[in-house]
Amino acid sequence: MEPLARVQNLVQSGVSQVPRQYIQPLESRPNNHSHDQNNNHTPQSSNINIPLIDLSNPNDTILLDSIRHACREWGAFHVINHGVPLKLLHDVRHVGRSFFEGCPLTDKLEYACDNASAASEGYGSKLLVANDDTVLDWRDYFDHHTLPLSRRNPSRWPSKLVPNYGKVLCDYSDEMKLLCEKLLGFISESLGLTSSYMKDAVGELYQNITISYYPPCPQPELTLGLQPHSDFGALTLLIQDDVEGLQVLKDGHWVTVQPLSEAIVVILSDQTQILTNGEYISAIHRAITNASKARLSVATFHDPAKTVKISPASELVSESSLLRYRQVVYGDYVSSWYTKGPEGKRNLDALLLDS
Question: Three-state SS for 213?
C-alpha cells in the first residue's frame, strides 16, 4: 500500500536520505549517460532548447514548415502568441501552488485519489498500480478529469481550500481544448492533410489536467521526478514555473526544456505518431529533481475515447512510405501502458509491422 505521507510530507519531516523505494537503478539515474549515443554526453546548456514557434506568424508556409520540422525532429516544441490569456497561465500555477504549499496535509488528503486504481482523479503520488519492487517518482500530483463535460465534477477539486480553484481550472480546460484543436489543425496541414483530419481521427477529446509538484530532493542524483516515457494519448500541453526539470530525449541526449513563462510546451503523444505513420514522433521525456527548489508543472492531456480505433492515415501510406503500424483500439493501448508500464516507447513499438 502507498504510505499516507506524500513526497512533500517526507521532505517536511526532514529526511536527509532518499527512501529506498524512490532510488532509481544505476542505469536510470539522471547523471547516467547510457542513453547517450557512444556514451558521448552532451552537457545541459541554456543554448540548447526545443523549437520555439510563434503561432501568430502571418506566413502560413513558414508556420507550417516550423511545425513540420519540430514534429519530425523533436516531437515537442514551445508555442507563443497561442491565444491563451497569460493571466490564466499565472492563475493556474498560483492555485496549484496554493494547494500544495498552503494547505495542511490532513486537508489535502480529503481529496486523495484511489491508490488501488490507475489514473483515478484526485491528490496522489503514485501513477501506476504496482508491486513492491516498483521505483516511485519524486513528485505529488492532483489529477482532474475535465472533458467531456460529463466527466467534469469540480466538487472533487479543492475549491473549499483554495479560492477560485474550480473556476480557474474550468477556464483553463476550455482554453486548452481550443488550443489543442488549433494545433491538431496545423499538424494536419503540415502533412498535406485536410485541416480537420487529426481532429476527426481523434474524435471527441477526453482531457485530464495534472498539476505536478516536485519537492526539493536531498539526493537528486538518485531519483527522478518522472520516469522516461512518451504520453499515450494524442497531444499534451504543458506549462512550467521558473524551475528547470523537464527534459526531452533528442538524438540520444537529454535536453533540458528551459522554462518560458509565456510559452506553452506542446508534446506529441503516441496516437499522433501512429496517425502520421511515424512521420511525426512522440517525445520521450522525463522530469529531474533538485536539492534546493520545489518545482510545479501543469500538464493537459488530450486523448481519444477508449473505443476509438487508431491507424495511420491512408494518405501517408504509399510504395515509398509503407504502412508502419497496425490498427489499435485506444482503450487497449491504455490498458497495456498501465499494465506493462511506460518504459520509453515499448507499447508503441509493439504495434510496429514487419518491414
Answer: strand
